[in-house]
Amino acid sequence: SDVERKRLAGLDLDARAQADIGGEIYQADFTDLTYRKLGELARTLLTAGFPVIVDATFLNRTYRRKFRALARTLEVPFLILDCTAPEETLRQRIRKRIETSQDPSDADLKVLAYQLHHHDPLDEAERAVSVALDTGQENSLATALAAIAAANS
Fold first, then answer.
1. Which helix (H) or strand (E) holds 20?
2. Cα(98)–Cα(91) distance, rounded to whole angstroms?
3. Distance, CA of 79 to CA of 134 (rounded, Å)
4. 105 Cβ contact partners less than 8 Å away, ≥ 6 residues apart
5. Better pLDDT: 134 or 123
6. Which is it for strands 130-134 and 80-84: parallel, antiparallel or unpaired?
7. I want to staple 18 with a disulfide (CB 3.0 to 4.6 A). Which of 14, 24, 32, 44 is the partner?
8. Burial environment of residue 85 by CB neighbours within 10 A (0 to 12, 13 to 18, 19 or more)
9. For the segment 1-58, what is each residue's pLDDT rounded down to a tens digit?
10. Among 15-24, 62-71, 90-99, where is mean pLDDT lowest?
């Protein structure tokens, strides 16, 4: 989502945009545009027969429902990877990302604080198609791949 958001704004991927919630390319209407673009890309790839992972925060239930509806329409499997990590791990990752400037994300510690307190928790229907994944663990990638394989078998 960070890459597509910047592409839509005509920014270089390494450009730093104002990350404040509601600032510049993070206004609600631009977020809607970003998720619509992600949906278009997902539809194109799925229709062509490719598997798709949409990498975004999906803090808003409305966006999750739209992608679930897309999967239903295209008759493809749908799975939510409910990624979590200890807050201090998330803070360390953000600090490291800011220091190295090698990631298109503009999120800083203020954005993290906002996200931790302003998100729609998964509802019962979403939990039924989700796999909880603690990305603070060393083997989180192997766990994720095993969960995806199990869900699709």
1. none
2. 11
3. 16
4. 2, 97
5. 123
6. parallel
7. 24
8. middle
9. 999 998 998 888 877 765 555 557 778 899 999 999 999 999 999 999 999 999 999 9
10. 15-24
